[in-house]
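User: Last request for today: this protein with nicotinamide-adenine-dinucleotide, please.
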Amino acid sequence: MTATQEAVAPAAGQDLPVVGHWVDGVRSAGTSSRTADVFDPATGQVTKRVALASREDSDAVIAAAARAWPAWRDMSLARRTQVLFAFRELLNARKPELAALITSEHGKVLEDALGEVSRGQEIVELACGLSHLLKGSTSENASTNVDVSSLRQPLGVVGIISPFNFPAMVPMWFFPVAIAAGNAVVLKPSEKDPSAAIWMGELWKEAGLPDGIFNVLQGDKSAVDALLESPKVKAISFVGSTPIARYVYENATRHGKRVQALGGAKNHMVVLPDADLDLAADAAVNGGFGSAGERCMAISALVVIDSIADELIGKITERMSGLRTGDGRRGCDMGPLVTGAHRDKVTGYIQEGVDAGAELVVDGRGGQVDGAPEGFWVSPTLFDKVTPEMSVYTQEIFGPVLSVLRVGTFDDALDMINSNPYGNGTAIFTNDGGAARRFQHEVEVGMIGINVPVPVPVGYYSFGGWKNSLFGDTHAHGTEGFHFYTRGKVITTRWLDPSHGGINLGFPQND
Ligand code: NAD
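Assistant: Here's the final one, the structure of the complex with nicotinamide-adenine-dinucleotide:
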């Protein structure tokens, strides 16, 4: 039996399997009778249910992590490294299995799901270098015959709360680093696609991670609140929409925790007149419609200097006509949206754009698809002449809707981005080094692409936005990730000799 099949257990008296929790190295059904539906978005069918933890279930999972933690904290760096390497090898060998599981619950096309796993794997590879990343420092003779050293120690139990759009990669932004640094993890995945987390739990067990160090708690607000409030949980890494990120940040800090809460986004791509318009059109289509626009780094606002707008829109429209929307298992370019409710929200925004007077160049509602009619479809959609007060611009649509905003100058483009409340990612397309350099210097956004539409940083740099796209001050993975999951100690040492004798009540001076 593969890990995928083991991830779900049949529900007593029901025909659909229920995805449960992963605690202490085994699956657990928990005690709650509450469940939520899990869909196959390409068929529109409910294929599973997911357990929604009671407070008692949540407390039990957190307690298991707390029990397991001290032994892992004390395990040598050499042994921890071996476990991380084993996890990396298993993940690399079996990622098509995980990708298929993601496609079946999220809907993104298989190739994109595989890409997500590979980007997550980068962080596992970073974490394999834990012995180097956790090194402290020493200063000999900081004062005469006095040495000072620093070291970093794990926090204990840490909570990770993740969104639906990257059920493998986003958790992997955090848990490889948290575990490598010597913490115990409770992951609360999105209830929309809960199985990837269980699959990864089983992989950790196979890799030799001690039971109780990686746990999965399935649930909704109740499970999140349990993590935010439990005194056993020392830090929270959250990724999701901005209102929930703000809620998590405020509540978890009130309970004395360290928090990084990554929120929503509205990512602008600026195209200057000197850019190669064919390459810019390719990038706009890839960045706007990849994963059906359900990426926090998706391009949703295309800010174009008016003189080239008609030509660029022509090239984009031409490319859009070749895109195939359909079932992610059939080699299509773009899959469905995650749920029927989300599809309705996205089509609602499209109608609002029309009503507000934007020009609907390509309407993705009711387009042809290669999939079951009940699937949650919206095909790629393009608006022109969008203005900043329209809801298609002010709201994070999180669907395959690209809006062109025409501006007169580079400064107008920069002002528009800097006036937006979000600051996750942005891109500029130009061959003018001076303009690009000014853009990277002045734009108030955390991740910037220069002729790169989706500038997700590599694992050894850190991921995170500015303004309403991140609450807290530490970004994910890279050295910032190791810093987040550890706390520092500084030790001042002297080995006594007669020169240290004598009474002196003054503040210690170094000499
Ligand atoms: P969401 O905010 O609805 O859910 C995120 C997590 O919060 C889930 O685990 C969910 O169960 C939980 N949650 C939902 N409602 C809650 C509530 N009332 N109280 C407590 N917890 C609650 O987000 P989503 O729809 O799953 O994901 C899409 C959003 O995530 C988009 O806004 C996207 O931009 C954002 N996102 C941001 C980044 C980033 O790096 N900044 C990355 C990926 C996704």
